[in-house]
Design goal:
Layout lengths: L4 H5 L3 H14 L10 H8 L3 H13 L3 E3 L5 E3 L4 H25 L2 H28 L6 H8 L3 H18 L2 H21 L4 H17 L2 H25 L13
Antiparallel strand pairs: 1-2
Length: 252
């Protein structure tokens, strides 16, 4: 796998985490494969220490498992496990969103509305750009490429979600969200092929419920968004050949 220049320049365990995530997501590392600490260190130009630190984080995320003699291998995952993990993330995130709706902090509500407005503007710009690029093409592949969410839109979605977590989560819940959401959030960002309008509508349902003070509706909307993200990730892994069409892991 070609190592992006940005990763080669980042001499931290975070760079190693992303490198391993990308190799698993691309199918370069498969279920049961051994994680070669020396090879990764050479590829990124880092010592074994940040690699081993990264393996601890990846094990926490459920991506790798440690066997006897501290050998780390890629853990098993399939469509079922991904749906279950995203469900947990959605429930936890929904708890935070519900608390924001209940607390009704004017500054938080105003900031969420500002972010939603910026998201809608970014999505409109992205739709116009995608429409120009795909003019005259009616193929399914063309529509899929036009629906890939832009970087700015993804950044705004992440900011909306993080604000809800920061404002609504207790310290323990925030730690749980950070632990559960590491790989899942990264994979969702890599996989999102929804149209910009679909992305905005998903976030609008959450923000509108929060602003209206409807805690349960906010929690349900956040869970629905997590479930949609799960399907996007599963679809991307199927396209890449990491999962079979039936959702089973292609490695066996």
């Amino acid at each position: 796998m070609v190592v992006p220049a940005a990763l080669r320049r980042t001499r931290t365990s975070a760079a190693v985490v992303e490198y391993v995530q990308r190799e698993i997501f691309a199918g370069s590392l498969r279920h049961g494969d051994r994680i070669d600490v020396e090879r990764i260190g050479t590829a990124l130009g880092v010592s074994p220490t940040p690699v081993r630190e990264a393996l601890v984080l990846l094990e926490r995320d459920g991506l790798i498992a440690t066997r006897m003699h501290r050998v780390a291998i890629v853990a098993h995952f399939d469509a079922g496990t991904l749906r279950a993990d995203f469900h947990v993330l959605g429930v936890l995130s929904g708890v935070a969103a519900a608390r924001v709706a209940k607390d009704r902090d004017p500054q938080v509500l105003a900031r969420l509305q500002d972010l939603l407005q910026a998201l809608a503007g970014s999505a409109s710009a992205g739709s116009a750009s995608a429409g120009s690029a795909s003019a005259g093409s009616a193929s399914a592949d063309g529509r899929a490429e036009a629906g890939v969410t832009g970087t700015r839109t993804k950044d705004l979605v992440a900011e909306i979600v993080q604000l809800q977590h920061d404002a609504g989560a207790t310290p323990r819940l925030l730690a749980e969200l950070q632990g559960v959401g590491g790989f899942l959030s990264w994979a969702a960002r890599e996989s999102d092929r929804r149209t910009p309008e679909e992305v905005v509508e998903a976030q609008r349902r959450v923000v509108d419920a929060i602003v209206a003070g409807h805690s349960q509706a906010a929690a349900r909307a956040r869970l629905a968004d997590a479930r949609a993200a799960a399907e996007e990730v599963i679809g991307e892994l199927v396209r890449r050949g990491v999962l079979r069409a039936d959702g089973t892991n292609a490695a066996g």
